[in-house]
Amino acid sequence: MRVLRPGPVCGKRYVAMSDLVSQSFPPERLTAVSVLRAYRDGFFPMACGDGRLRWFSPDPRGVLPLDGFHLPHGFRRVLPRVAFTVTVNTAFDDVVSGCADRPETWIDPAIARVYTELHAQRSAHSVEVWSGGRLAGGLYGVQLGGAFFGESMFSRVREASKVALLALVGILRARGFGLLDIQWVTDHLENFGAVEIRRPVYLNYLREAMMTPCFFPAPGEVQVAEMPRQRVGVM
Fold first, then answer.
1. Looking at the 3D structure of the chain, how many domains does it have?
2. Which CATH number characterizes residue 106's domain?
3. pLDDT mean over 120-149
C-alpha cells in the first residue's frame, strides 16, 4: 500500500530496487482498461510529479498474507476503546482525496480519475472509517477476482487507518480472497505481518488468486472482527 513509504515519489531509490519501470507516458493514455490490464501483469501506475506517469512492478513485491496477518500489541490493547464506524464503498472519492492530501503524492488528477472510473465499474473499492459523523480515515484498492491490490490509506484521527486495514483483512478473509498486494513493505505494514516475495512467485499467486470468484460487500456499514492472536503462516 503506497503510504508511509520513505523517499521521493518515483525517485531513483525505487528504480534502483529492481522495480521494472516502463518509459513514462502521458496521462491521457491512462484508462480503466489499461490499468486493469497492467494489474493482471503485475504492474501499477504512479504519477511522478512531472505531469507524466510510469508503470511499476517491484521485485521483491510486498504482500500481506491473509493467514499471517496479526495485530501489533499496542493496537490490540487500544482497539476495544476506539469508537469508529466502518463502511465500504460509501465515500470512495473522499477516501482517494484523503490519501492524496499529503506534501508528496503519487495520486494526481489523472490517477484519481481512472480509479473513480474503476470504482464505477465495481473494480475498485474503499473502506471508510468514521468518527463523530466525519471521515477519520480509510483506504482504497483494486479487485480482480480473489486478488485485492491495496493502493493507499490515510488517517485524520489516530488509529483510523489501522482500523480500516483490520476491516479490509476481515472482509477478504471472510469472502475467500487469496491475495492482498501492498506493492512495497514499509515498517508500518511489517508490524501487521507484511512480507516480501520475489516477483515470479508473486505472479504465480496473482494468477491463482485472479481465477477465484470473490465479491466485496454491498455498500454500507460493516463490522470489524478482531483477528486471532497467533500468526498462522506466510506465503
1. 1
2. 3.40.630.70
3. 97
